[in-house]
């Protein structure tokens, strides 16, 4: 999936984060975990397309850019905002010294020399301000269990000595652009995207440049609806009276000692991180203060940015009540650790971490579900003691067009029936009903063998047809769902076209969905076993009933309930002509659609403990 980056999107990002944008001149930006669709095109345009990319610390997997707010133009350059793995490994042997990763925020660079006294030195953009970085001494990724370091690290913005997005690069923590420089010893001549980046900026009389560093996932989510009302966030570089109000609370807590100055600098950022770690645990810290952290600080009336209110199923705007001011500490938030290397996806943190009220301290891992094809490893958890019993998993999302939708005829594996029927005893309509698929307990293979996972299946953990739940993907929308069909016994992660559209996924039965090779991150599922109304495989619930009842259960499930933005679930897709289906009867084990060509899954999944898109994973830090 790709998204468009525009002046309006960058301006909305700055408004939400309280970043003051200069009225004239050039602004730099970096997006961690995404690449330009055309890495060779470095020209300025009103709009540029980007695609998500896994940060692997081996190849450039980020985008740096130049933005001219006064004429709404921008240009993209492939590069990296993360240190290279080789230098991370060297630094780890020295307690983390010599390599670091910069947190997201709003920084400043000035024209100057990188490594002025060395043969490889070249014209670049220098750091001359104190910043907060993470130094890694225990493993090969960055999270808030690592060392926080405040100071001037001399992490410049310079050339990456890189031939392209599939080659290596050189960075110990600097922001780098693909290409080669003209070095002090004249052994190289400036070339590649770096040449265009440096020359364009050096032609300006401007000597200093503001730099926006953000997760690519954040930009991608905001691109879904630029004007959607979202909670304001404070991070390094944020300025304004709201920052001053936060600083007053931090001062009263003894976390800062200076007079509040309405500017989030390194001391304020360190205080925010320490508060999050102490209150919610390192795995739930991200260095960004939004509505949930504000609630823990006891701040009321936390503002939103954006004029469009989230829309409910009835078409009316929802009121965003962030539930701030309660200052409740979730039980166990500072002691819980996910099993293995699993971490929450970054887009799930707001609604599914302990701070949001999810009772992780009482969760039991279900490692048996690692045997399901399509399930993100170690993501299975059961909540037997929650106010509403539930289970959780993260998985791929294949498109199930079965039922009365014409698209069932377009899919070679499509069938005209679903296991669950509606109140009129008719198969469900994948276009207009928000169902997901429950794996069979077992099924016969073609050779006659009975196949199943060896441990507890989803059904044996209480999952039934008609059970309600919620799903979440990168667009940040909580999507109500219901188990409405049965699927292969060894696969997990499938749902209707309607759910796919609500999640922001391509709903084409043949070419759409999220395949196993594209996860993690996957679609987060939370299901409430025992919530079915269909013991006879006939549900009385309409799509609107599913939304109402599933969201009510989700709120009751969370020990610190926060109102959930409800998407306007898409209606029917345009009618397509029905294709003639091959004759034959439905068998117990559903056939799956032909596999698309997907990129092979790497050993390290899409996990990052700082706000990035790295697929390097460790402990329980949110992705």
Task: Give the key terms.
623 residues, alpha+beta, Muramoyl-pentapeptide Carboxypeptidase, domain 1, 3 domains, 8-stranded mixed sheet, 7-stranded mixed sheet, 11 helices, globular, disordered C terminus
Q: Would you kindly provide a written description of the structure presented here, covering whatever features stand out?
A:
By secondary structure, this protein is an alpha+beta fold. 16% of the residues lie in helices and 20% in strands. It is built from 11 helices and 27 strands. The strands form 7 sheets. An 8-stranded mixed beta sheet has the order 9-8-14-2-5-6-13-12. It has a 7-stranded mixed beta sheet with strand order 17-18-19-27-24-25-21. A hairpin with a 4-residue loop joins β5 (62-68) and β6. The protein is globular and about 75 Å long. Mean pLDDT is 85; it is low at 318-334 and 572-623.
Short description:
This protein has 3 domains: 3-223, no CATH class; 230-329, PGBD-like superfamily/PGBD (Muramoyl-pentapeptide Carboxypeptidase, domain 1, Orthogonal Bundle), CATH 1.10.101.10; 360-557, no CATH class. It has 11 helices and 27 strands.
Tell me the domain tally.
3
As a percent range, the share of helical residues equals: 10-25%
* Structural class category: alpha+beta
Instruction: Give the number of helices.
Output: 11
Provide the β-strand percentage band. 15-25%
Tell me the total number of β-strands: 27
Order of neighbouring strands in the sheet with most strands: 9-8-14-2-5-6-13-12
Sheet with the most strands? Answer: 8 strands, mixed
| Contiguous uncertain segments of 5+ residues | 318-334, 572-623
C-alpha geometry: globular
Task: Look at the structure and give the mean pLDDT.
Answer: 85
Radius of gyration (CA) equals 25 Å
Distance between the termini: 19 Å
